[in-house]
Amino acid sequence: MKFCALIFLVYLAIGAVAGKKNKLCSQMLGKLSDLEDLINKKQDCCVPEPVAPPSSCKEIYDKDRDSPNKAYDLKLGDKDVSVYCSMSGELGDCGGGGWTLVMKTDGAKDTFSYDSKAWSSMSPVSPENGDTGLDHMETLLPTYWSTSFSKICLGMKVGGVTRFLRLHREAASLHFLIADGQYRRTSLGRNAWKKLIGPNASLQRNCNREGFNSRGSGSIKTRIGIVSNQEGDCRTPDSFIGFGGAELSFKNVCGNRAAYSPDNGDKNTKAFGYIFVQ
Question: Which of 276, 277, 268 has the alpha carbon at shortest distance from 158?
Fold first, then answer.
């Protein structure tokens, strides 16, 4: 009997120890499970969220002022579009800071004449030419209707020299300023517009209506620029400097057309034009 009792006590002791071990093991497994959950949560929180592509060249420049002049992918609406960005140094009087290309236009072609549907539509023209910089390939990019700005950089290349003019104007897009055909005034002055052409620029002395959708009642008109007249009104101007011209008899869509007693002689100077916004 004593032997049986001893065996029973040993069995109880072993059971108690085993129970404690089982409880301890369960507790340790629980702690390990909690630790695993914590590690997984930390891993989840440390995974970087996808970075949305920038929507303008200025946004890229503001993050890295050493960004080079080149094409970048911009998020325009629901699409990623390759757009040339001028970051510094090449746009003359416009300065740097991240300029977004909108348009390149050849004054000898009617692609972007005043009456072209391109000015009022939201359809790109040759977007594949929008990432190639200051060359002579025409383009109209979705930045025309998608990119807001506070400054516009206008450039004209005449005789191998490209000159730039900066215009301070805030708008939701360039399309907003132009598409409805309403005249919107600027106040740069005739001499500023003449600098785009250079020393051979010529305008009549009166009217000097400048801005967006500048026109009289005749054939001379321009989407961005200035029109002038030899008479003391703006009804029948015969001269312009600008982009989106409509002097069809001389087929000048971008540049300088002047006749009927202009201040520097008759001109029909066709330029290659560049439009950037910031």
Answer: 268
DSSP state of 173: -
Q: Which two tokens stand for residue 19?
A: 């129970």
Res 52: pLDDT: 76
- The whole-angstrom separation of Cα 137 and Cα 272 is 9
Q: What are 130's two structure tokens?
A: 């929008």
Residue 209: what are its φ and ψ, rounded to 5°?
A: -85, 115
- Give every strand in the sheet of 252-258, ordered side by side: 184-185, 206-215, 221-229, 239-247, 252-258, 267-270
pLDDT along the chain (278 residues), means of 10: 41 44 52 57 58 91 96 95 95 96 97 96 97 96 98 97 97 98 97 97 97 92 97 94 82 95 97 98
CB 235 within 8 A of CB 225: no
- pTM higher than 0.85: no
- As given in the structure block, the two tokens for residue 196 are 């785009």
- Which amino acid appears at position 47 of this protein? V
How far is residue 168's CA from residue 165's CA, in Å, rounded to a whole number?
10
Two structure tokens written together for 57: 């060249």
What letter would DSSP give residue 180?
Answer: T
188 contacts 206 by C-beta, under 8 angstroms: no
